[in-house]
Amino acid sequence: MNLDELRTFLAVVETGSLVAAAKRLNVTPSTVTARINGLEEEIGQKLLHRNKSGADLTSPGFKFRRYAELMVQLWGQARAEISLPRGFEGVCNVGLDFDLWEGPGRRFLDHVRAHCPGVALAFWPGEQRMIDRWLAIGLVDIAFCHAPQEGERFASHVLFDDELILVSREAMAAPLMDASYVYVDHGDEFRRQHAAAFPGDVTSALVIASSDWALDHLLRNGGSGYLPRRHVAQALDTGALHRVGNAPGFRRRVYVVENAQTVRPWGWYASALAAAASH
Q: What is the pLDDT of residues 185-241, one digit of tens each?
């Protein structure tokens, strides 16, 4: 098994055909076929159903895809770490929940760039299950996320509690859970808190699992929804959004999870983490 075979397999999956993959990779279709055949021979399973209309994953191919993606990612990370430009003392690979760039992710980056110029950074955005896997395989050294990590290799610390508040483009004296309400999905704990606070049926024609996307939608189209205060602070200050009166607030805990052995010798890390946690 080699990287060319893995990249070719992923290109076929992403483009849907061997011919399209050949064009993307700038090789001949026969080369693509040979690489896929070689990979399947090594795995001992058919990974793709091939037909005139294209190629689809088999059940073994579906399972193998995520491993292929991880192997290609790990190779890219290894190259990045080994080929650091002269003058850099190391690299910090950061896993980041999509909603945590605004705030801790950006503050961490700004601090390191301003005060630790010898440290290179790589950011990997993803949802919680992806971050858990990246931590487990060592793809990331630290992660800003919403769930602590178990295991002796990891240390989990509470960074802060996000305050989730109900906001709307139009001033409202009380929550109005009608068709204009946007259900912003902030995870399991939020779902429980929300159900307890609003035990009746909540009419929502739209569910968005991203604070950034939900904020954009509210600003462009109106309506109301629960968002982190740090996401909407500027919009509240300018009057573009309003906090809904008499609406309950919720909290969502933010953690930093570290590979304890990796971060131990980093003299710069404590101050960067303090910057990430500041408000």
A: 999 999 999 999 988 767 688 999 999 999 999 999 999 999 999 999 999 999 999
Residue 228: beta bridge partners? Answer: 164
3-state secondary structure of 80: helix
Both tokens of residue 28? 């001949």
Query: Parallel, antiparallel, or unpaired: how do β-strands 142-145 and 90-97 relate?
Result: parallel
Final residue before a domain boundary, out of 63, 80, 97: 80
The count of domains in the chain is 3
Q: Which residues contact 30 (CB under 8 A, 6 or more apart)?
A: none
Q: Is 215 helix (H, G, I), strand (E, B) or coil?
A: helix
Yes or no: say if 169 and 240 are a contact pair by the CB < 8 Å rule.
yes
Task: Please check whether residues 197 and 144 belong to one and the same domain.
Answer: no
Give 135-203 as a DSSP string: HHHTS-SEEEESS---STTEEEEEEEEEEEEEEESS--SS---STTBEEE---HHHHHHHHHH--S---
Based on the fold, state whether residues 179 and 136 are members of the same structural domain.
no
Same domain as 69, residue 95: no
Regarding whether 127 and 18 lie in a shared domain, the answer is no
**Proportion of the chain above pLDDT 90, given as a percent:** 73
Parallel, antiparallel or unpaired: strands 48-51 and 54-57: antiparallel
**Residues 143 and 201 grouped into a single domain:** no
Structural domain boundaries, residue 8: 3-80
Same domain, 126 and 241: no
Taking CA atoms, 195 is separated from 13, 207, 230, 277, in Å, by 40, 15, 23, 29
Shared domain check, 262 and 147: yes
